Amino acid sequence: MQVVVKGKNMEVNERLKRFVEGKIGRLQRVLPDLAEAEVELSSARTRSAGTQYVVEVTLKANGALIRGEQAADDAYTAMDAVLGKIDRQVARYKTKKFGAFNKGETEAKAPVAVAMEDAVAPVEEGEEGRLVRTKRFAMKPMDVEEALDQMQLLGHTFFVFNNAETGRVSVVYRRQDGNFGLIEPE
């Protein structure tokens, strides 16, 4: 398994890097098909809390993406907190994956796609927004249920995918009432 540890607005010292690699390495016991883990640590000064540390973890396992993000006053605390979130998502992923085997399917489907991050940034009135990030990704066909599962594993509010039923690009999203919606082209 490849573990990439990056710092944004901060330098990641060797002790912190070993701590992160050790915590991520333990995930391989419960998720043996874990191929890559990317951990981004960042710091930002806030008026009320001083320095805030944010840890973002993205795991790639058998084509599925599992993502978690957590903030705390200390980088070590933020890492522990995000791992709690990742543990719950890994449990959900394994339930879905191995649940497919229990239903008699020969192989669990591994969706591959990425939801857009930072899609909407706050813009002051009278100020125009600008494109700040572009993502490119491969999309394997999946059904709506798989897309909803993948969106929830990533922790996003919407997810772009190649709909296996229609052969077209579609979007699932979380509605304000807590339900989900599907956008399909005509």
What does this protein look like?
With 186 residues, the protein is an alpha/beta fold. The chain folds into two domains: 2-102, Ribosome hibernation promotion factor-like (Double Stranded RNA Binding Domain); 111-186, Sigma 54 modulation/S30EA ribosomal protein, C-terminal domain (SHC Adaptor Protein, 2-Layer Sandwich), CATH 3.30.505.50. The protein is 30% helix and 32% strand. The protein has helices at 14-30, 75-102, 144-154, and strands at 2-8, 34-46, 50-61, 64-72, 141-142, 158-163, 169-174, 180-183. It is globular. The model is unreliable at 100-124 (pLDDT under 50).
Question: Which features does this protein show?
Answer:
single chain, 186 residues, alpha/beta, Double Stranded RNA Binding Domain, SHC Adaptor Protein, 4-stranded mixed beta sheet, 3 helices, 30% helix, globular
Detail the topology: elements first, then pairings.
Blueprint lengths: L1 E7 L5 H17 L3 E13 L3 E12 L2 E9 L2 H28 L38 E2 L1 H11 L3 E6 L5 E6 L5 E4 L3
Parallel strand pairs: 1-2, 5-6
Antiparallel strand pairs: 2-3, 3-4, 6-7, 7-8
Number of strands: 8
Question: In sequence order, what are the helices and strands, one letter per element?
Answer: EHEEEHEHEEE
Structural class: alpha/beta
CATH class of the largest domain: Alpha Beta
Taken together, the total number of domains comes to 2
Largest sheet: 4 strands, mixed
* Individual helix count: 3
- Give the termini distance in whole angstroms: 42 Å
* Helix proportion: 25-40%
Spans of at least 5 consecutive residues with low confidence? 100-124
CATH T-level topology of the largest domain:
Double Stranded RNA Binding Domain
Overall, the morphology is globular
Strand order of the largest sheet: 1-2-3-4
What's the alpha carbon Rg, rounded to whole Å?
Answer: 18 Å
| Fourth-level CATH superfamily of the largest domain | Ribosome hibernation promotion factor-like
Which CATH architecture of the largest domain is right?
2-Layer Sandwich
**Range of strand content:** 25-35%
Nearest-integer average pLDDT? 79
